Amino acid sequence: MTFHPQMTSKIEGISLLDDLRFRRWNAAITDLWHVECEQEAGGTYVSRAPRLVAILDCIGDGRVEVRASSDTTTRSHRGQGCLSYIPAGMEVSSEVLGKCRLRHLDIHLDVKALEHSMGSILDRRALETPRIGFCDPRINALVRLLADDLENGMAAPQIYGEGLVTALTAALLGPSPATEPQRKRGKLAPYQLRKTVDYIEQNCGRTIRLDELAQLTGLSQSYFCSAFRESTGMPPQQWQMKARVERAKKLLKKGDTPLASVAVGVGFADQAHLTRVFRKIVGTTPGAWRKEQIA
């Protein structure tokens, strides 16, 4: 069954400046909002799924006050880096004192899918405890990467976002170990690494899900990510990009294939996407690299 947070809200004085951008991951949904808030704007919100709300930007004179409906203490948070974790079923209210423009990311968490992918039971006390107006540099860094995926219009591979969501959940809720191997930072066994690398290189032109790779090795997603990085020095999604670039090089050597065709042929969204990744890995553009090979 498809995960849906089933969120309901009542708002006043808040209007969208841009279209809502969202993306569905294996164990979460991310929503990127850009809104304008009038004087004394506000609302009430409740969802059947736990969520993290992160303020990315707050421009103007407004001050945002958020509180759980069961809490008489008002918590104030303003500006980038402010986070609020709201448990499932808990109603929260917000009030904006003064006018401002807000950009915020909401991350709706699918608890069952997260526990399955992480191979851990999430701490129920942490799941049920609200955290309003806190800051955490680790979580903020992960939130920014998820927001960038929505903002730049270039959809990152599934394994990229799923890895971020898993890391964010671990930092936010601190899952307790269940069936994980004891060596949290161990490497993949040689046969596991060979099997994984072969699979990525054979299928690099399409979306590869993190759970595919974890299943291939018989590990949970969180442990697999850690073990793959320890073994190769890079996360699996970066290895996939590297494999795409290697395929692109083979096509570029033919000399007459248009760059746009090369990009689509190896799995990139377009020529600009190919150029950006190629430059990052190789140190030059595809066009310049091809000229060097032909010369």
Automatic annotation (TrEMBL):
Keywords: DNA-binding, Transcription, Transcription regulation. Transmembrane segments: none annotated. Residues 194-292 form the HTH araC/xylS-type domain. One of its GO terms (molecular function) is sequence-specific DNA binding. It comes from the Bacteria. PROSITE patterns: HTH_ARAC_FAMILY_1, HTH_ARAC_FAMILY_2. This is Transcriptional regulator.
